[in-house]
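Suppose you are handed only these lines of text.
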Amino acid sequence: MDSSTTLTRIKLLLKMNEFLDIVLNRVSEELQTKPLSADITELLKLLSKPHVKSLLSVHDTVAQKSYDPELPPLPDNIDDDEDSVKIIRLVKNKEPLGATIKKDEKTGAITIARIMKGGAADRSGLIHVGDELKEVNGIPVEGKKPEDIIQILSQSEGAITFKVVPGPETEGLSNEHKMYVKVLFDYDPEEDKAIPCKEAGMAFKKGDVLRVMSQEDATWWQAKIEGGANPRAGLIPSKHFQERRFALRQQTSNTQPQKVSRKPSGLRRSFRLSKRGKKTNKSMYECKKSEQYDTADVPTYEEVAPYCRAHGAKHRLVVLVGPTGVGLNELKRKLLISDPQHFSVTIPHTSRVKRNQESDGVEYHFISKHLFEADIHNNKFIEYGEYKGSYYGTSLDSIRSVIAKNKVCLLDVQPHSLKHLRTAEFKPYVVFVKPPSIERLRETRKNAQMISWKGDKDSSKPLTDEDFQEMISAAQLMENQSSHLFDLVIVNDELASAFSELRQALRKVETETHWVPVSWTHS
Ligand SMILES: Nc1ncnc2c1ncn2[C@@H]1O[C@H](COP(=O)(O)OP(=O)(O)OP(=O)(O)O)[C@@H](O)[C@H]1O
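From them, the structure of the protein bound to adenosine-5'-triphosphate can be written out as follows.
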């Protein structure tokens, strides 16, 4: 039983006793005035019994006691002119207090800078932002540095007494709006020189989803890791502040635009996974779109919301990204074979002349060069390229047409094209396929073939160490520049396990809740 229930019960008993007391006294008085019948005599006898009397006497004793909580005595040294001083007593265990302090450089006053959501100070409801700290455990803080005060606090355990002058009311500042963000960079407060209090900071890793608890401070937000065990919020740099820092860093450290050093492999695959089963050259297409890293995209936080595809709703687009030769085609092929009714790929467009054995809309959509150029102009292609005087490209409409058939559209693109696909319409689920170590590549790719284009013919050749090195460094570059856009990273070591990991993840995409950019859930 808790103490408040006990108190309520005692109070109830006392009330009953009081009532009984009055009743008994009245009854006794009344009975004295009546002719003494046998019943009255017996009743008077009962009322004068010791246990009835002692019950009444217990009541008197208990009723005189005070059951209000006892407050610690006020310290004697409070100035008379010091109005509205609060004496706060908190019991502190090993958990940090969850408040940060700052010193006003002009007045020297130490005030509470912020209260961490869910921390001990927040839960107590007694300390507020703006309160001026006067004493800690009887030690005046005037003239002390915040570090010294933090030292006093961190050394104290058990009851801590604070003397504070309440600050101005800060009602209505708290932002109860639930905001979730996916973080697009790694952060460690220990390495952040700007954070006002490292102990209050929270480390996170790229890809974590955070619940932002407070944005009251424009520079330092409070957040906690969604699904994490820690109920207390930690300090994180605000979006605006982090973006400014990134921009500054880029200005100072990187005046050269980062050119993707990649073979002009361009649009190689999107046009190749065909019903033809025929492979074309790795370096057949040159991508016409910008391959430069877009420095305007500063990856900090992306607001996200949970999304679960409703039964029967359109499927999300599945996009595979990875370096040449890593096995994107192989994985797509296995998915198609595993369930041809469920998975499909786009049919590319080309301006080249149709060959005899080909049919329009099967291998390619054959269109004129003039029309192709008009479509480029009208942004109809997600990627396009030119080879031997003919255009090849993947149109947005070809993706739409697969999705409209209620199939899962499998697409592979260069990472820089991802941003054009990241729309509420496509809701892409992006899988980055990564090569394993060079040793494992040598072991697993013994029979692997690269198809190269010599003269006018396809010819296959085994993969060399140089191909493996190139694959690894291209993957590294992609990861450095675009990993914030990846939903899943699969290492294509053993093909069977890479495929089963992919298959399982795609099943979950269709049935389970995933975090997606919040704008995708508004449509
Ligand atoms: N995990 C694996 N183990 C062994 N061989 C593999 C594995 N993954 C792919 N391969 C083989 O490696 C070769 C290249 O694979 P694939 O054509 O799928 O690469 P890709 O990523 O589509 O590259 P590109 O688009 O340049 O052709 C193929 O011969 C394929 O069978």
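What can we learn from it? The longest strand covers residues 158-165. The chain has four domains: 3-64, 86-165, 179-253, 318-518.
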